Amino acid sequence: MRIDQQQITEVNTRNNDIHNRQMDILKQLHSGSRIEGIIGKLIEFQVALPSWALGAGGTRFGRFSYGGEPGSLEQKIEDIGLIHQLTRTAGAVSLHIPWDIPDDIPAVKELADSLDITFDAMNSNTFQDHEGAAQSYRNGSLSSVHEAAREQAVEHNREVIRIGENLGSKGLTVWLADGASFPGQYNFQTALKHTGESLKTIYAALPDDWKMLIEYKPYEPHFYSTVIQDWGTSLMLANACGEKAFTLVDLGHHLPNTNIEQIVATLMAQGKLGGFHFNDSKYGDDDLTVGSVKPYNLFLIFNELVYGMENNAENPPLSWMIDASHNIKDPLEDLIQSLEAILVAYAQALLVDREALSEAQQYSDVAQCQEILQEAYRTDVRPLLRESRLRSGGAMYPLQVYRDLEIRKKLIRERGLKVRATGL
């Protein structure tokens, strides 16, 4: 389904007076040219939505369908189109293979083009066995002691690259669940060696204009050891592969209270931060709505991202994606909320007075450094988001429009109550 653009325009018109007053206040507090610059960057900022996030996600204890879930890749792209029409920020999809292999690539591309959706980095899957596969990944994939399993995992990644090429994607994300649950289960050095060799083989298959994103995670599904357990191991493997390989940071893939903003700064200084996956957490890889638990942490991370984007020209443009599991919320509402939180943190970081901050840092004025950061963080930047959406043809209040138009009810009528999306 698609939303009648006139319906969005009518809701925007009803909220115009209040919005204009809020914008006037922001322009009084900050220079008009600076506000315009931030709005321009918000309009350009696009976040990919993963193909597995359009349905109700699961936990190890169960999965509860929300009704009206997309039953095909085409319906998933249509749902992303709905979110993009409302927010004008979700202009890309990140496919997961084999969960979402296109049956008709030209038709899928045509559908995506009609909705102004591009194809972001492709995601391979060697953390579960594939139907009909000769080898099992029970004891590892790219790191396996079994050569046949490693070769099968490498070939799977090659297949993902071929599919992505036909779709117009320019990247491959590799996340490994490979690890050990018990001491002595495998040799650490051998597992790392096999992983490095496998990644180099995959890297050799990359088209010239592609990049490979190597993800890391300290634990889960294994709780004793993970082969690529931290950003340093990811960076080491990326450097060994070549200039088209980069580290990917997932917010949930860290031990509690890890200083993620410092990791971001270090990687960007090395020109090796390639992608970023957004979510939130209280304990581990909780995959909660972005900004729902630690919004100040998200702001601090964006503060380093903005600095890096402005000062580290050698670092490539980043691949942004939401990676979350929507178990008890309407997944489309959850994604809309996540996009809002991401843009709020981005706009707040753009408001930081970097000249004043640099001066305070030079004089070791610790209190003033904190004041400058928190002044930006405590600014209500939501009117800037609304203005950027208004200028782009989106909804000033996307969640409100989604609910007012009863989109979930319409999806249930169209698709049924019991359908379940592929994926998590």
UniProtKB/TrEMBL annotation:
Q: Which GO terms describe its molecular function?
A: isomerase activity; metal ion binding
Is Manganese one of the keywords?
yes
Ranges for domain Xylose isomerase-like TIM barrel come to 102-287
Q: Which UniProt keywords apply?
A: Isomerase, Manganese, Metal-binding
Q: Which InterPro entries match?
A: L-rhamnose_isomerase, Xyl_isomerase-like_sf, Xyl_isomerase-like_TIM-brl
Annotated Pfam families: AP_endonuc_2 (PF01261)
Highest taxon of source? Bacteria
| Name this protein carries in UniProt | L-rhamnose isomerase / sugar isomerase
What is the organism of origin for this protein? Sinomicrobium oceani
